[in-house]
What we know:
By secondary structure, this protein is an alpha/beta fold. The chain folds into two domains: 3-163, NAD(P)-binding Rossmann-like Domain (Rossmann fold), CATH 3.40.50; 165-253, ProC C-terminal domain-like (ProC C-terminal domain-like fold, Orthogonal Bundle). It contains eleven helices and eight strands. The chain has helices at 10-21, 37-46, 56-62, 75-82, 101-107, 138-148, 162-191, 195-214, 220-227, 233-244, 248-272, and strands spanning 3-6, 30-33, 51-52, 65-68, 91-94, 111-116, 127-132, 153-156. Helix 7 runs antiparallel to helix 8 (195-214). It starts with a strand and ends with a helix. The model has no long low-confidence stretch (mean pLDDT 96). The site of 1,4-dihydronicotinamide adenine dinucleotide has 27 residues, from helix 1 and helix 4. Residues 2-97 form the Pyrroline-5-carboxylate reductase catalytic N-terminal domain.
Amino acid sequence: MKVGFIGTGSMGSILIESLIQSGALQPEHMIASNRTFSKVELLEAKYPGFQAVQSNVQVAGDSDILFLCVKPKEFRQVAEEIKGAVCAEQIVVSITSPVQIKQLESVLKGKIAKIIPSITNYVCSGATLCIYGDRITPEDQILLERLLSNISLPIRVAEEYTRVSSDLSSCGPAFLAFFVQKFVDAAVEQTGIPREEAVRLAAEMVLGTGKLLTVGGFSPESLQKRVSVPGGITEEALHLLDVRLQGVFNELIETTHSKFFEDVDKVEAQFYAPK
Ligand SMILES: NC(=O)C1=CN([C@@H]2O[C@H](COP(=O)(O)OP(=O)(O)OC[C@H]3O[C@@H](n4cnc5c(N)ncnc54)[C@H](O)[C@@H]3O)[C@@H](O)[C@H]2O)C=CC1
Ligand SMILES: O=C(O)[C@@H]1CCC=N1
């Protein structure tokens, strides 16, 4: 089985490297292209056997599973470019939320899936969101999920919840890192604690909290309750956060969705534009 990647930017290269490093795929079974060829050449140099090629059409033609890891504005052009090389037996995976499965099905003959990864997959953690088109069989779905389970927890979601699921799973690491940064900034500013020490403590805390919420049997609510000694310090600070962050997360979701719908409209315009 050959797995191909068109686009080896941030997310394409994370998928490639984590699939190799987890042992899920041998480099000899992978082929990739990228607009800036030097990016994909770096992967070829790092992983002997990995095949870097100049042509998207060659990647499309040689792959049993083809990951399209370009940005929404590049999808139509790439889809048009490779459509002659994609046949009905191939699995084609888009990793971007605003491109609808039906749009890809309208151009490409392959079996279409949308898989939204997360930077957390780089350390074989976090989810990959799985959304399937009508052509992809249950066996294909199992094949894909078996592959992805080497680097993540594949979770099926309805296409209508792709954006909000991606906010939690794929944008979430950036939001949480922002929280950590602000927490550390304040700790350094207010107390003079060395920054490195504060970052290390906060990072270990995030890791442990993730474990408590996944395998530790805690919910977000029960975890807060357990840490908050009645009448104690955490309780006071949680109250402050609750008051000051009133409505912030609703606005955050409104913001991601409004940008998403802008992108959906732009992609729609591309797919309905004359070729
Ligand atoms: N960065 C993240 O954490 C996540 C990103 N995504 C999605 O993945 C998609 C890609 O994002 P990134 O990897 O972060 O972007 P990126 O800009 O780092 O990578 C895109 C790559 O596509 C290449 N490219 C552009 N046009 C091309 C063409 N015609 N042929 C071949 N290669 C071409 C570019 O040279 C670039 O290397 C986006 O749609 C994003 O929404 C999804 C989940 C998480
Ligand atoms: O910022 C972005 O557009 C992408 C979507 C999910 C994570 N990063």
